[in-house]
Amino acid sequence: MPEGNFQSRWLAPGVDDVWNQFLTVTHRLEHQIDRRLQDNHGITHTQYEILVRLADAPKHALRMSDLAERIVTAKSAVTYQIGKLADMGLVERHKCESDNRGVWVKLTDAGRERLEKAAPCILSLVRELFLDAITCDQADELNKLLETWAGNLDRIERGA
Amino acid sequence: MPEGNFQSRWLAPGVDDVWNQFLTVTHRLEHQIDRRLQDNHGITHTQYEILVRLADAPKHALRMSDLAERIVTAKSAVTYQIGKLADMGLVERHKCESDNRGVWVKLTDAGRERLEKAAPCILSLVRELFLDAITCDQADELNKLLETWAGNLDRIERGA
DNA sequence: ATAAGGTAGTTCGAAATTGAACCGGATCAT
DNA sequence: ATGATCCGGTTCAATTTCGAACTACCTTAT
Predict the structure, then answer these.
(1) Ranges for the HTH marR-type domain (chains A, B) (predicted)?
(2) Do the Cβ atoms of B90 and B110 come closer than 8 Å?
(3) Tens-place pLDDT, residues A26-76
(4) CATH topology of domain B14-133
(5) Contacting residues for B73 by C-beta, under 8 A, at least 6 apart
(6) Nearest-neighbour CA in chain B from A114: distance (Å)
(7) How many angstroms separate the CA of residue A87 from the nearest CA in chain B?
């Protein structure tokens, strides 16, 4: 650390930029998606994600914990959001027969409709911003990277 | 949409997975970083980012607005966080001579020290999780993608 | 059977983020 | 210069998130 200058390049040059760019870009992506979803369809990105997960699930229903795991948030946040979505009529809670502690969350018809209306809008944005820039080869490459990162995260989360 | 089944594959197969994985992985990455930073160094990821930006800036100082732009949050959030960091003594506010409305935020010595202690910890995590998985070629490739995405975001933010 | 420990979900309080409203201080026209 | 407008930053209320504590239920071992 010569002449009192602060160490501003933290990693190998170039690599350090990748990380910074990565953070910035992901923030900006989330921002844009959130804004468009909110403006045009009255739901947040989190809520949209919940609807998508439910739509993808068999019988369009999931347990609270599964939902929490899939959208990567605290259980309490899921309780909160499902409360809001239920108030909007987009989702319903059902008793779980096999486990009396459990709750099934099910997409309602209104929820499905809302999602079907929102999805094209948001997907066109995702394409425009994110996917159109990627060739098939790059998508494969990126996918490999994401798998690796996911694996690393599994390991760390287990180990820590 | 045959036999009432919901359209669960939104994009071309594979591509759609990339997007989902991308969201999940970024969330999990942020989570891990936040947790480690909080547990070991008593600052949040946002606060860490602010310290880094200040350290990188000439004279270790930035204007509030610049900071807001760089860490991609609302101005009010920056006001809030700088308040906290100032309470912790990691940062100082200074009058701006050239513009009496303005505020310079400057890293204090304590702030620099805190950052120097936290950086290796968080960087080793970033390496372990994120960077070690990348070859130089992949880093270049990823960098190109990020540039493109950033460009797209510029365009959209301008246009919308 | 029953006690011990684990799990599902909610509740609660604290912290963070946002957008809108606001307050000067600048800037630019006439 | 002076009035209109713009810009930097703060304040405020509303929303969201998190973690810890809690309740109720399940599971397992003895």
Answers:
(1) 15-151
(2) yes
(3) 999 999 999 999 999 999 999 999 999 999 999 999 999 999 999 999 999
(4) Arc Repressor Mutant, subunit A (1.10.10)
(5) B46
(6) 13
(7) 23
Burial of A33 (0-12, 13-18, 19+ CB in 10 A): buried
CA distance A64 to A48: 16
Q: Say what the alpha-carbon torsion angle B33, B38, B43, B49 is, to the nearest 10 degrees.
A: 0
Over residues B129-154, the pLDDT tens digits come to 888 888 888 888 899 999 999 999 99
Rounded mean pLDDT, B26-50: 94
Give the three-state DSSP class for A104.
strand
Smallest CA–C1' separation from A81: which nucleotide? Answer: D16
- Whether residue A63 contacts residue A96, with contact meaning beta carbons closer than 8 Å, is answered with yes
Residue B1: band (very low, low, confident or very high) from pLDDT cuts 50, 70, 90? very low
Chain A residues touching B25 at Cβ < 8 A: 146, 149-150, 153
